Amino acid sequence: MKRKRILQLLITLISMHFSTYLSSQSIIVDDLLDDGEYLWISSSTGLIKYQKQNTATILYTEQDNGIPPVLTNLSKDEEGNIWGISPFHGIIKFNGKQCSFYNKDNSELRDNTVCNHLYIEKNGNIWAGLIGGTDLVQFDGTIWKRYNLTSTYIYAFLNTIYIDKDQTLWLGGFCEEKDVKDTWSLAKLPLSNITKGITPVNISSIGIKDIEIDKQGIFWIICENSFSLESYNPVNEESHIFKLPESDYPDVDSNNQIIPFSDIIIDKYNNKWLCTYKKIYKYDGSNFITYTHNKIDGSVHCLSSDSNGDIWIGTDSGLFKYIAAQDKIEPVELNINKNQFIIINKKHQM
Description:
Layout: H1 2-18, E1 21-22, E2 29-35, E3 38-43, E4 47-51, E5 57-60, H2 62-65, E6 72-76, E7 82-86, E8 90-94, E9 99-102, E10 115-120, E11 126-130, E12 135-139, E13 144-148, E14 153-163, E15 168-177, E16 184-190, E17 199-200, E18 208-213, E19 219-223, E20 228-232, E21 239-243, E22 263-266, E23 272-275, E24 280-283, E25 288-291, E26 300-305, E27 311-315, E28 318-323, E29 328-331, E30 336-337, H3 338-347
Antiparallel strand pairs: 1-30, 2-3, 3-4, 4-5, 6-7, 7-8, 8-9, 10-11, 11-12, 12-13, 14-15, 15-16, 16-17, 18-19, 19-20, 20-21, 22-23, 23-24, 24-25, 26-27, 27-28, 28-29
Protein name: Two component regulator propeller
Signal peptide: 1-24
Keywords: Signal
């Protein structure tokens, strides 16, 4: 899958060299961040700031602003900076004009490719989980710290981080311990004493991909190799499994593989939205409802919901939008003109 993704990126970059106009369906959308009237779009061309109402669009590129393509885990801090993870450059911070990098040379990252998840506290602290172990890094704006949560694992990765109102740090991923009873996919530890040790949580899911928290504080979990949705109540520790019917599974991809869920979000109506190869699913509390569009050809990478209840959809085939009032998906044309963007970027104006 990684080789295929890199090939897609190279094809897109080559096409940019010969064309000044880039339609939405000619870019690969890797991540989305809802920002009120704006939508931040991480793509194979760079970072895009899209104004939803009048569709004005700014493209920030590596050439003009230092921003590498293919960012994931887009997040915004209290000062308005946009953060993300680059597969080759570590953690990036974008202030609206230029990009800063945190990597093995100036932070506690082991190398430039190991970061797997970002979480930003309200106080501005940045947390990141590292691939290939249970190392957790923290950045307060000045000082980096790294915590090795366990040294007895056989195989481990951290995919998601969450800090609740009680200052409990939750970790989702997978950690296979030498002692089988200590193996976990979901774990917690007190933020005030991280070195105290991890407490594994008993759930059915193995290898957590992502977690979303609803307004009632319920965890909604998707896994690396499953078409099930699991809910977990941290108060009474009850969990429930909701299985996608096999008849609704996605088609196999070009490698003859079935792609599991790649993202989960919760909309304003408390619906859970999930995505995979060519398909998007809405779980309304009782049933899974399947959505697709004939122009979506490839994987659906990411979802983002806005205050209207609409869902923005990032795919191998560009940007799409689920319009709640019409209960349908439509493609979104970004109207990216490269020549115009060279001028707009230097002024940083819509």
